[in-house]
From TrEMBL, chains A, B:
Coiled-coil zones: none
CDD domains, sorted: Nitrilotriacetate_monoxgenase
Transmembrane region(s): none
Protein name from the UniProt record: FMN-dependent oxidoreductase (Nitrilotriacetate monooxygenase family)
Lineage: Bacteria, Bacillati, Bacillota, Bacilli, Bacillales
GO molecular function, one term: oxidoreductase activity, acting on paired donors, with incorporation or reduction of molecular oxygen
Keyword Flavoprotein: yes
Boundaries of every Luciferase-like domain copy: 24-380
Pfam family, one: Bac_luciferase
The family this protein is said to belong to: Belongs to the NtaA/SnaA/DszA monooxygenase family.
Amino acid sequence: MSQSNRQLHLNLFIMNAGHHEAAWRHQGTEPHNITDIEYFTRLAKTAEAAKFDSLFLADGLAINNNIKHGAFIGLEPFTLLSALASVTQRIGLIGTVSTTYNEPFHVARKFASLDHISKGRAGWNIVTSGSSVEANNFSKDTHLAHSKRYERANEFLQVTTGLWNSWEDDALIIDRDSGTFADHRKVRSIDHVGDSFKVRGPLNIPRSPQGYPVLVQAGSSEDGKEFAAQYAEAIFTAQQTLQEAQRFYSDVKSRLAHYGRTADQLLILPGICPIIGHTESEAKEKEQELNELTVIDYGLTQLSHMLNVDLFTYPLDGKLPELPRLEEINGNKSRFQLVVDLAAREDLTIRQLLHRLAGGRGHRTFAGTALQIADQLEEWFVNGASDGFNVMPPYLPAGLEEFAEQVIPELQRRGLFRREYSGHTLREHFGLARPANPHSIASAPAAASQAAASL
Amino acid sequence: MSQSNRQLHLNLFIMNAGHHEAAWRHQGTEPHNITDIEYFTRLAKTAEAAKFDSLFLADGLAINNNIKHGAFIGLEPFTLLSALASVTQRIGLIGTVSTTYNEPFHVARKFASLDHISKGRAGWNIVTSGSSVEANNFSKDTHLAHSKRYERANEFLQVTTGLWNSWEDDALIIDRDSGTFADHRKVRSIDHVGDSFKVRGPLNIPRSPQGYPVLVQAGSSEDGKEFAAQYAEAIFTAQQTLQEAQRFYSDVKSRLAHYGRTADQLLILPGICPIIGHTESEAKEKEQELNELTVIDYGLTQLSHMLNVDLFTYPLDGKLPELPRLEEINGNKSRFQLVVDLAAREDLTIRQLLHRLAGGRGHRTFAGTALQIADQLEEWFVNGASDGFNVMPPYLPAGLEEFAEQVIPELQRRGLFRREYSGHTLREHFGLARPANPHSIASAPAAASQAAASL
């Protein structure tokens, strides 16, 4: 695709009542519906009608705060995505599953199932989990160290890709006359033996429409970037400024060659929490209104958790106290660094920082008109900072509807975004090739092999 | 409900192309569609239109045979059920999940999600897994011993019920004005510490419509029956004769009192694989036709696995060789005993036994007219052998359609089966009470407590 036809990719990041931490207090949101499938069905259908590439659900494996003033609770994302697969036709479905508290056989199998059920629309956001309260729900006293989590994640991906490739695409025969159900030579054990896992295989489900789900990653630490360069096909990342985003973009893309990959095999999608007004001042007022609905206790708990320091003992209108060093952080390292940099760059008090983070928990918040937002997206997109965006509406469903009705048509007018889906699978939306099965390549004659590679 | 109004309960056990091991070779089945959601949607809608209480999906965590002539493979049941929840309104959705290869936090959370998504239609068929090939997919060299699996299952249920009760039903407040999201006094840690698990909780999803999913169990060994008496609300069981079924029925029901439970708190649903003909001889011909489609190699592998002996070295037209003792069986103990008894009672050769097992893997197969089948079901139902049945069509979708069009109307004419759903949840279909939350009872004033208990 020529540079001038380059299209941006939009993922809708769905978060209960919305991404702003006070969304549930905002008129028009539906916090009572966060366990109601019909609510999420409406959101998914709106996103599909707007031609989003995909929708995405985050996850956590524990409640990590006093839930009095809010909490990230609700439907388990994988269960929810599968239910949404039945009521949508085109939009990609990306679910978060942790490699730290799961078994690769289950995960490989469930994503293969979701990919079959959705006819090729599954994506896996690979996380390593970030908090000790999660460990406590899985018979562990302490959280695995950051680098150990990535070692485990790495081996986890070896096992899951091995399992997804354990069936060649044409292994199922189903010849009634001869009684041949499958070609047993095309279904193989993987016999993986490693530090964390010992898995025999094969998987008990045939290879799925996409070969395997689109692999997505959201960690932006050193370990995270290296992991992404090796495995990820899309990255969700939090970037506050154009310069930071450009640096991250070129850093990650430059790491791909080492793994024999090209820059177009990995999409970088920074988060954006767009607060949309008919005028700039209306947008700023909306932002102000939302920030005034926040509950200080809630925000302080989240920020204390992010920074690994108890902020309740410091004055709200003072600056951040001395913080732990990055090496001591065993949660989300890159988010820690982002918050520290943000507070320093903008010289923020704790209260001001709470407001800056309320919209997107570290992801960029931008309040303006639809045109201004389209300008911002285009600026990042054409200046080497992104391949598209992870769109995080501050409140739902209205924040999504405003984006769909105002920003997307503007991006379409500029020729930056599709008016209709051209493909059917998430890989097709993202412009990613279907992974060839290494066994098929090895066993096929040259011509057939070439055909497989070009799929 | 008076004895005369007693209604039987019907569960549809869905198995890919059908329960007969040669179903995939039978004209009219759709083995190419076993990974296609639209195929399963059609089956679910047919079952719902016929007013089945529920549909059920079995599971295995490995391929345990050479797949040349057939295999139990396909969509992961939980993923599939969630997708079916979106396209059905009334029918219960029962999924199999193993307590041996899963974490209770994940399982509690996923079933709570499915129960929310389906608005109260979730059921969990609790299994402990039965084969060492499954162990090999989960970093274990050998399979956990039978009694150890049940010890783990027992603790697993303590944890999951604890987690399901960790939210009181009215814990979510969502008061926008005061900024009160939840009543934090009504959401509790469980702080479970046991031999197999250490789980802090609470669950990160509010209590679901049914309180928790209907708990189903399918093991009929000593350990299995005792586990069922303590926890199960429905049992799927394989019983070949009226007498055996009556013995099992009264045995299990008599164990409930020990756990402070009454006989009506547990439904016993024996399996039936009905082969339906317009005449008896047509039905027998159908059965014969199906049996002739079986592949000996496939059946022998399954039977060798069930009996823990390599049958390939014995003559097909001879009797079973000497078998291991029941104590040495670490798979499905009750199924082992059933097959041994069946072969002895009917004095079967190995080949004859293979045919007797081809329809339902040990579950009862009955070939006859719709009237004869209704007679059989009624006989068991009114003579203390069952509260309903686990219906296992030999081939799909036609075997289900025949049952829905011919047998169910006959059961309705006899006043034995509903013509319309009267309830909305699976508990309502099964006539089971919604479990009260022990925390709510403890903390509520007397009057409120009574109201909660009668829910």
